[in-house]
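Hallway conversation turned thread

IA: we were arguing at lunch whether anyone had actually written out Lysozyme end to end. Turns out nobody had. So, for the record, here is the sequence (141 residues) and right after it the structure tokens. Reply here if something looks off.
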Amino acid sequence: MKWALLLCALGLFLHCEAKQLSRCELVRELRRNGFPENKMRDWVCLVEKESSRRTDIVSRPNGDGSRDYGLFQINDRYWCSNTGQPGKDCNVTCKQLLSDNISKSAACAKKIYQRHGFDAWYGWKNNCRSKPLPDISSCKN
């Protein structure tokens, strides 16, 4: 019984790192990390479709064996390193992309956007392009 309680407590402790943001919390975090207001609804839509606003999401393996990490579902084939050392194009570990502090995820997402636009994310292409974007009018600064 003691072991079961200990394992449950450990599981809760490890899971506490994960966070699901409300829509307005996401908007505040995006603003804090310098995302442009004129694209804010696109970014919110992307995050909602890719990760449901959760910071701890790791995808199932993609067809090529790669995985997507964190709030922005950033792929480990090109952008983050699965070793203990930061690397690849964003110079981060994939684990860093799972943090509740989204600064590294945000910087990497902006780098991806600079190179490829929103088309780098299937969640945005399939669910946000040419479709109604989320209402963020109630999300104050």
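OS: looked through it. Confidence is low (pLDDT under 50) at residues 1-16.
IA: good, adding that to the notes. The first strand starts at residue 68 and ends at 69.
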